[in-house]
TrEMBL record:
PANTHER family: TRNA (GUANINE(37)-N1)-METHYLTRANSFERASE (PTHR23245:SF36), TRNA METHYLTRANSFERASE (PTHR23245). One of its GO terms (cellular component) is cytoplasm. It comes from Halorubrum sodomense. The lineage of its organism: Archaea, Methanobacteriati, Methanobacteriota, Stenosarchaea group, Halobacteria. GO terms for molecular function: tRNA methyltransferase activity. This is tRNA (Guanine37-N1)-methyltransferase. GO terms for biological process: tRNA N1-guanine methylation.
Amino acid sequence: MSVPCVAVARERGETVRSRLADADALDGDHQIAVDDDTIYIPVVGRDRVPADLADRIVARDAAARDRPTAPAEILGYEPSLERLGGIVIIDEDDDERAREIADAVMAADLPCETVLNRASPIEGELRVREWDVLAGNGTETVHREYGHEFALDVAAVYFSPRLATERHRVVEQVESGESAVDMFAGVGPYAIPLASRGADVVACDLNERAVEYLRENAERNGVADRVTAIAGDARDLADSHAGTADRLVMNLPHSAEEFLEAAVALAGDDCAVHYYDIQHEDDPFGPGRRAIEAAAGDAYAVDVETERVVRSYAPHEYNVCLDVRLTRVDD
């Protein structure tokens, strides 16, 4: 059967396979093959493959792989599961069905330490939710993403593994020596890769527990010397870091507009801004663009370089990103 494969030199095989695994791009239904000096790694689709590997995708016949017992084989149906480190997350209103799925997950040949069920929506200023622990004994884990490790407690901090590809897209734009400000940093999924690319990063979050993990994760990933972690309101950064940012990350989709005045104050003479928003499908980018232009006023020229739908958020609503260039206007 012909499937998409990433073709790379044999000596790079394990490095590339690991990157594809971090991006959740591996096709586990088909076998990796070697032909002469080239290794062919099956992938689930082009959209999950890191951008620098996309031109290496080829169609190739691949043998089916014998798979270990999956939860679906035990249950007789395919449950909706999300992986976060050693945690498997489900979202079931029916308690009996939730426990049935948890039992199947633990019985299957699936690396898993804990099964959690969402017990509340994301709530409050710190964007956290409640969980039911169905199996295992905790809500803390270590998540791996594009070669980085993030320790976190899902009951204490906000973290979405679904944004891994988007985070990687932003990080790949960074050049060594940049000064970056992550205004809503969480446990560091933007800040730490930015620092790994050679940026000096100021990372702020209102959630003090998240900032504790951020500092731990900076150490864990060997970038503590390039990450300044600050617990507090990002608007307060404008007093201490005004005019310093070559790059700003504003990943607080429901509320980022409230922080645009501070973002403009933080911007240097030439600043890239990654602004995240949630808007109706009829005009997903216009409100963000207009808000940025209003905040910039006459001080900056505003160039919207990219308008990107990150994912569907709700019926008729999109989570979007605007990559914007702010260029200071001479007086």
